[in-house]
Design the sequence.
């Protein structure tokens, strides 16, 4: 979805994965000069862009959803969908159809469903609201998506579903069935590039789980080995890093050129000192719900390029993961 110039906005504050950390979100907004009036956090000349995954895991999901929705509905924020919002919509769609379609994993949703247990009408309304939120946003000076900007997938999304959201029933059902282009598009935009490891190899992610697939970076122009594609935090056998990446699998990759607009993503559970993925790509997910930091990047109109110094954050609170 392309967003025209918003003349009254001097800059945007892009916020990474909140995951129900309501207290941290309030503290971050206050730190950036937002004030709450009539239940809505607002700034006189700035607007927030949430990069998805406001749901699940944390202890303040219900209040987080209300806060974010109030900001979006009043024109003080944008929200791009993350994989957790899409999973919630698909879970609700599957339940509406009697659970007869492919089952969705609900464990990440447990805290969300628990906190909305006594607010069923509001939960149904929230699902309908989420269906109207965009999957990606393109502003004149930058782009925002939850995990990966793949221009070919974006083009196909705009062709298949010009609204670029989940409001269309046929598009939603295609995703629910995990069939056709719709599922592949969402998988790429909301989860990134996920590839299978060679036989006999596994990878231990930052969450400690062993997997046979890995998240590949999408800002390497000419990768030749698996090491060229691995995220730094992932732990693998040293010999895998030097193993040649198969030519026949290069069609599965995508590349975001350093000449493209600045890109903001979440999703990747970063930790440690702030840094950029690439000169024009920054991830703002710093594992807030797992004892990390809730991070925002503050843009200014007319300022080109990305700078680590424009990232601000607040530390962990008592609202850590309940799972």
Sequence:
């Amino acid at each position: 979805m392309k967003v025209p110039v918003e003349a009254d906005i001097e800059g945007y504050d892009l916020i990474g994965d909140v995951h129900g950390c309501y207290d941290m979100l309030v503290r971050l907004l206050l730190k950036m000069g937002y004030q709450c009036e009539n239940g809505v956090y607002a700034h006189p000349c700035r607007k927030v862009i949430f990069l998805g995954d406001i749901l699940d895991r944390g202890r303040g999901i219900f209040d987080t959803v209300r806060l974010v929705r109030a900001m979006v509905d009043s024109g003080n924020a944008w929200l791009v969908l993350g994989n957790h919002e899409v999973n919630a919509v698909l879970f609700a769609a599957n339940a509406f159809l009697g659970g007869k379609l492919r089952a969705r994993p609900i464990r990440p949703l447990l805290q969300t469903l628990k906190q909305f247990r006594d607010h069923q009408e509001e939960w149904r309304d929230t699902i309908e609201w989420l269906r109207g939120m965009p999957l990606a946003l393109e502003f004149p000076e930058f782009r925002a998506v939850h995990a990966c900007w793949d221009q070919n997938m974006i083009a196909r999304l705009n062709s298949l579903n010009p609204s670029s959201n989940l409001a269309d029933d046929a598009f939603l059902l295609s995703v629910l069935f995990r069939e056709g282009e719709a599922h592949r598009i969402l998988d790429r935009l909301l989860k990134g590039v996920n590839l299978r490891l060679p036989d006999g190899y596994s990878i231990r992610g930052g969450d400690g789980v062993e997997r046979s697939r890995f998240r590949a970076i999408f800002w390497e122009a000419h990768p030749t080995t698996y090491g060229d594609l691995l995220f730094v935090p992932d732990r693998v056998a040293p010999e895998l890093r030097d193993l040649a990446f198969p030519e026949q699998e290069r069609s599965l990759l995508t590349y975001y050129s350093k000449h493209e607009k600045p890109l903001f993503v979440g999703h990747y559970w970063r930790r440690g000192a702030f840094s950029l993925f690439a000169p024009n790509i920054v991830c703002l997910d710093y594992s807030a719900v797992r004892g990390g930091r809730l991070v925002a990047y503050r843009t200014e109109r007319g300022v080109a390029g990305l700078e680590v110094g424009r990232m601000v954050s607040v530390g962990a609170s008592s609202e850590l993961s309940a799972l």
The chain has nine helices and 16 strands.
